[in-house]
Amino acid sequence: MIQATELRPNKVIKLDNNIYIVTKVSFNQPKEARTEVIYRVRLQNIYTGASLERSFKSSEKLEDVYLEVRKMQYLYNDGENYTFMDNETFEQYELDKNLIGDAKNFLTENMEVVICVYEGKAVTITLPTSVILTVTYTEPGVRGDTTGKVTKPATLETGHTLQVPLFVDIDTKIKVDTRTGEYISRA
Length: 187
Known about the structure:
Elements: E1 2-3, E2 12-15, E3 18-28, E4 38-45, E5 51-57, E6 61-64, E7 68-77, E8 81-86, E9 92-96, H1 97-100, E10 112-118, E11 121-126, E12 130-138, E13 151-156, E14 161-165, E15 173-177, E16 182-186
Antiparallel strand pairs: 1-6, 2-3, 2-6, 3-4, 4-5, 7-8, 7-10, 8-9, 10-11, 12-13, 12-15, 13-14, 15-16
């Protein structure tokens, strides 16, 4: 059992005999010190994909779910599902595009990721903290503006667009933070 205060995105819990993954957590700080904190949680059913919002008091106990953690290799996507292969057993697992979320912006073929499995079904994905991707399109930088941190939009090989410094050109390999989606450095 866990308390509501331990809820974080990608945490998996059992609620009303269903298995849910936490997608968003926010809380209301009470004005009076004697009142409990209320956590508003957005949950997604791992089997049906249906979303719901629930509120929990900070003292409420919830049923935690044990997940197997496996290293897997990203193979491909068919538009709806993303397919991964277990590096040890060579079994293939699919994750729905809704469960992938923003991770799709950084996935490249053959990338190693960590997938959590519950009763034979892949339920969450964890990417490396940074990845190296190639810029496929960006406008040429305008010279002369050096007054601050000047950036321009760039499209990556995955189709994701982010802000990069003016010196980054097409075919430049860059390092991107997968948690924030921001440019880190040239690779």
